[in-house]
Design goal:
Chain A: Keywords: Membrane, Transmembrane, Transmembrane helix. Chain A: InterPro entries: Class_I_gatase-like (IPR029062). The complex is a heterodimer of chains A (705) and B (281). Chain A is of the alpha/beta class. Chain A has five domains: 101 residues, no CATH class; 154 residues, von Willebrand factor, type A domain (Rossmann fold), CATH 3.40.50; 82 residues, Immunoglobulins (Immunoglobulin-like, Sandwich), CATH 2.60.40.10; 239 residues, 3-Layer(aba) Sandwich (Rossmann fold), CATH 3.40.50; 73 residues, Immunoglobulin-like (Sandwich). Helix content of chain A is 22%, strand content 34%. In chain A, the strands form nine sheets. An eight-stranded mixed β-sheet of chain A has the order 16-15-17-18-24-23-22-20. A five-stranded parallel β-sheet of chain A has the order 4-3-5-6-33, sandwiched between helices. Chain B contains nine helices and seven strands; from the N terminus they run ααβαββαβαβββαααα. Chain B has one domain: Rossmann fold, CATH 3.40.50. Helices cover 43% and strands 9% of the residues of chain B. Classes of the chains: A alpha/beta (705), B alpha/beta (281). Chains A and B meet through α6, β16 and α10 of A and α2, α7, α8 and α9 of B.
């Protein structure tokens, strides 16, 4: 960086005028035939030049090295067989060749797994931004090309960007693509998952012809299997069966071929559908208006998600008065419609102090029994009528009730207590204020209950007077029956002797009957907290809970021991090794847990491709070359020239040295010192004078002689 | 001598046990009230009024037994100073000029009773003279009820659930008729649902109903089941007594079932919806 600069002593026009004058003098001398005209003119110009003050300026330069970004992709998709070795070899070879180039530095950028997939674009943009634009001589990425952040890729780069693709030419893969999956679904109503099977890469002919054998599991239970040819979209109907997470796992076995597909990890996917209850419909049948009836109404009416249909027998068929019908506000109980036609629309039927008095026909009770066996729920809150001849137990419904009355009624104050089962049962465990040893908490007493003999299969969770069963649960077929042998739960609501958690207890009983997963006795819960950390909670009525067997996505199993965290609660914290579909099992009970995305993003696509990085390579005159064709040679070319080509020894790629330098200082030297200018001008003038003088003498001598 | 000592020891033990159980067990009258939904009345100290209250509630209980599924036991008189009100559902409170207001502790209990779902029927028994400008029960009522947490009141509207909780009623006569009856004011945003002839009022139960129609006297029967007080004259009077009983039935149904009758108008709509969903499926 050096050059001539001017530092005029007079203003430029004056210097110009002087130069013009010198030229005019020269021309005038020529016209007059003066022999020294050239000397005169040059002397004048020299004077003008001296006034212009020419100087030599030069910088102090340091040559800067070129920077080559060497990016290696170590994401999970690069862990497929052979790719890691390919990457290692390529990076080693490139490092060696680049190190051999003079003044070339290597910037290594390693891209590892990210929850959002392989972030090559981000890494490249960041690496380029970190380096001075003038020194970047190129970038070389060793990758399978499966970047998931195409929008983050820079549009261009200061040097050529080369992409060396790992993988083999004969790589192929068959994968499952979930095109559309709902996140929520109403329980019992079908939702649609759209999916297809896609073949990628060099699919062997024998595989391309065969459809994939799809296996579809709902919550780990086989739902259906079907054959789906590749490329054909399928609308799969799934019915969420319960509230909470319904995991639909869809998968197919790796197709049989001489050369196996790249990975079978994208052959399956887990779709999580949150089951949401439609509005709950509760039928409340009160046998008579009584003090506790409004308790039920308050509970059910305060829940915006409940449609309550309530019937109270205000007047039994055996009582009449002379009041004309049009002065009464009574309507007939639409028993046939409720108990025969519509019964399956109800999620729960509550019999509140109901006495059998000929209003319901025996076949209705039979129908209620069938309804329970098919998955319905009944809650009986029985008053003293249970011990009478009008007991529900004497109806056909009695066969499914969890207890049989003895006819004895305890009319004495008693304190409801949790039984051993009750302390474990999710309905009663953790009820606020439960009487416990060593605590002041206290429930109010109730004043009356019926003695019953519980069915051996029933669970007694609360006991009352003389430790007789107060609250019993049983399962009948697919349905549930709960029975409260006292009608005085309302005393808790009234605050008698301090009261008790009456609304909470009744709410839990009702929701347990409706099979709310949160209140299941035997439950295996998994709370995903943080990335892959899972809190496993096993709720059980058994005294112990075995280790939970966890089946990993790759089929290996491990066992996690559980520690007791309270009555009937066993927990463990466990960290999954990676995203995927895990199956947790403890004996009969199992649960499918999907961690991370539906299918691991890294394995969505596995066949190496330059589709994402290709445009950038093209824009920067770089190349996308498969490493399976051999390692390309490395050259240097000038900027703007094609940076790749086919040589004698195979393909080559090039970097463009930038010859960058830094300037650390500047020197300013006048072209000639002042006295030299003076001598020069004087010399020129003298030469002109001499030339003219000597010429005239010579001419006179010639004329005189 | 020895047997005397033994007897004394036994007596002492018995007394001690009795004292223990008395302290431990709730009042058996109130237990019976909780078990049988017995109607309760406030003891005023005025023997005549208390007798009328008891006879009135007895008459109403007998009528409920005869006509409805509600089968209350014998009515009980309540002294708020000593009795635990949380076992009661309904309390009839005749207002007299002479009665002493309950103590602050009793008001705490009364307020808890009102908050937790109980109901008090205040009866000033002055339906014949109220509103004429002369002295009536209003002042005494105000003095008694001032410490109670009573929500804003309004005359019972014509579409209140009290008018249809068992019988269809237009007014609420007792021994007198035509007097204004007050209950909790409907919420300002009460709207009539489409196709329903009345507004959805009082989601819940008014903690008090106030009137002056001397209802207990109109319901009162003696041991033989005969009316104790005359109402009006002749057939008209008996018709009024019947209406008074109907009001009593409606009131007890309202206390026990709340807005059940108000909701029931929605049942056909709910059933319709079930039907429609079936068609859609």
């Amino acid at each position: 960086m050096s050059g001539l600069t001017f530092d005029p002593m007079l203003a430029w026009p004056l210097v110009g005028a002087l130069a013009l004058l010198a030229l005019l003098v020269g021309l005038w001398s020529l016209w007059r035939g003066l022999r020294g005209w050239a000397w005169r003119g040059i002397a004048g110009l020299a004077a003008a030049a001296a006034l212009a003050g020419p100087a030599l300026e030069s910088g102090i330069r340091h040559k800067l090295s070129d920077i080559v970004i060497l990016l290696d992709d170590r994401s999970a998709s690069q862990s497929l067989p052979g790719r890691a070795e390919q990457t290692d070899a390529a990076v080693e070879e490139l490092t060696r060749q680049l190190a051999a180039l003079p003044d070339t530095e290597i910037r290594r950028v390693t891209v590892s797994d990210d929850p959002d997939g392989t972030q090559i674009g981000t890494a490249l943009t960041r690496a380029l931004a970190a380096e001075p634009q003038g020194r970047v001589a190129g970038a070389i990425a060793v990758t399978d090309g499966l970047a998931h952040d195409a929008p983050m890729l820079p549009a261009t780069a200061p040097g050529p960007v080369h992409v060396l693709l790992t993988g083999q030419a004969q790589d192929w893969d068959r994968r499952l693509v979930i095109e559309e999956a709902p996140a929520y679904g109403l329980i019992g109503k079908p939702v649609t998952i759209r999916l297809r099977v896609e073949d990628q890469g060099a699919v062997p002919a024998e595989v391309a012809q065969t459809p994939a054998r799809l296996r579809i599991l709902l919550d780990g239970k086989e739902m259906r299997g079907l054959d789906l040819p590749p490329g054909v979209p399928l609308d799969l109907e799934v019915v969420p069966e319960h509230a909470g997470q319904n995991v639909v796992s869809i998968g197919f076995d790796a197709p049989q071929a001489a050369l196996p597909e790249l990975t079978d990890r994208n052959n399956s996917a887990a779709v999580q559908i949150e089951g949401v209850r439609d509005r709950l419909r509760v039928l409340l049948v009160s046998g008579a208006p009584h003090a506790g009836e409004r308790t039920w109404r308050n509970l059910l009416k305060s829940d915006a998600n409940v449609d309550l249909i309530h019937f109270t027998i205000l007047r039994p068929p055996d009582k009449m008065d002379a009041v004309p019908v049009d002065e009464m506000s009574l309507i007939a109980f639409p028993t046939h419609e409720l108990f025969m036609e519509r019964i399956r629309d109800f999620d729960l039927i509550i019999f509140d102090r109901y006495r059998v008095r000929g209003i319901l026909l025996p076949q209705y009770y039979d129908n209620i029994r069938r309804y329970v066996e098919e998955g319905g729920a009944i809650l009986v809150s029985a008053g003293p009528e249970m011990s009478s001849v009008e007991s529900l137990n004497l109806s056909p419904l009695g066969a499914i009730l969890p207890a049989r009355p003895t006819g004895r009624i305890y009319a004495e104050p008693f304190l409801p207590r949790l039984t051993e089962d009750g302390a474990r049962h999710p309905v009663t465990a953790g009820l606020p204020g439960a009487p416990a040893e060593g605590s002041d908490s206290h429930w109010g007493r109730w004043l009356r209950m019926s003695q019953v003999i519980p069915d051996p299969r029933a669970q007694v969770v609360l006991s009352g007077a003389q430790d007789q069963p107060l609250l019993l649960f049983s399962r009948v077929g697919k349905g549930r029956v709960a029975m409260l042998t006292s009608d005085q739960v309302w005393l808790w609501g009234r605050g008698f002797e301090g009261g008790g958690p009456q609304l909470e207890l009744l709410r839990r009983i009702a929701h347990w009957s409706m099979q709310e997963p949160e209140l299941e006795e035997e439950a295996l819960l998994a709370d995903v907290g943080g990335e892959l950390t899972v809190t496993i909670t096993r709720r059980t009525m058994n005294p112990t809970a075995g280790p939970v067997t966890i089946t990993r996505p790759d089929g290996r199993t491990e066992e996690v021991a559980l520690a007791e965290a309270g009555p009937g609660r066993f927990t463990a914290r466990w960290t999954a090794p990676g995203p995927g579909l895990y199956r947790l099992a403890d004996g009969e009970i199992s649960r499918v847990l999907a961690l991370g995305p539906a299918a691991p993003r890294e394995f969505e696509e596995t066949v190496a491709s330059g589709a994402v990085l290709g445009p950038l390579a093209q824009a920067t005159q770089g190349a996308v070359l498969p490493l399976s064709d051999g390692m390309p040679g490395l050259r240097t070319v000038r900027e703007g020239r094609p940076a790749h080509g086919q040589g004698v020894g195979g393909p080559w790629i090039a970097i463009t040295p930038r010859n960058a330098a830094s300037v650390s200082g500047m020197t300013h030297r006048p072209l000639l010192p002042g006295w030299a200018w003076l001598a020069l001008i004087a010399g020129l003038a003298l030469a002109g004078w001499l030339a003219e003088g000597r010429g005239r003498l010579r001419a006179q001598a010639a004329a005189g002689g | 001598m020895r047997w005397l000592l033994t007897f004394a020891a036994l007596l002492w033990a018995g007394l001690w046990a009795g004292a223990l159980s008395a302290q431990d067990g709730p009042d058996p009258r109130l237990v019976r009230a909780a078990d049988e939904v017995a109607l309760a009345y406030m003891l005023t100290g005025d023997a005549e009024v208390d007798a009328a209250s008891q006879a009135g509630l007895r008459g109403l209980s007998q009528l409920l037994n005869a006509r409805t599924t509600v089968e209350p036991g014998q009515p009980i008189g309540i002294d708020p100073e000593t009795d635990d009100l949380s076992l009661l559902t309904f309390l009839y409170w005749p207002v007299t000029d002479a009665q002493a207001p309950p103590s602050p502790q009793a008001y705490v209990r009364l307020n808890h009773f009102l908050r937790s779902g109980g109901m008090i029927l205040f009866d000033t028994r002055d339906g014949d003279i109220a509103g004429l400008g002369g002295p009536d029960g209003g002042a005494a009522l105000q003095a008694l009820a001032a410490p109670l947490d009573i929500p804003p009141l309004a005359p019972v509207p014509a579409d209140h659930v009290l008018t249809r909780s068992f019988y269809l009623l237009r007014d609420f006569p007792g021994r007198y008729q035509g007097g204004q009856v007050w209950a909790e004011a409907p919420p300002a945003d009460a709207q009539a649902a489409e196709g329903v002839p009345f507004r959805n009022l009082n989601d819940g139960v008014s903690p008090v109903v106030i009137g002056g129609n001397a209802w207990a006297e109109s319901w009162a029967v003696d041991e033989n089941g005969l009316p104790m007080f005359s109402i009006g004259s002749g057939f008209e009077g008996e018709r009024q007594r019947e209406m008074a009983y109907r009001f009593g039935v409606n009131l007890i149904m309202y206390v026990l079932t709340g807005n059940y009758k108000s909701d029931q108008v929605h049942v056909p709509a709910l059933l319709d919806r079930l039907r429609q969903e079936e068609v859609v499926q």
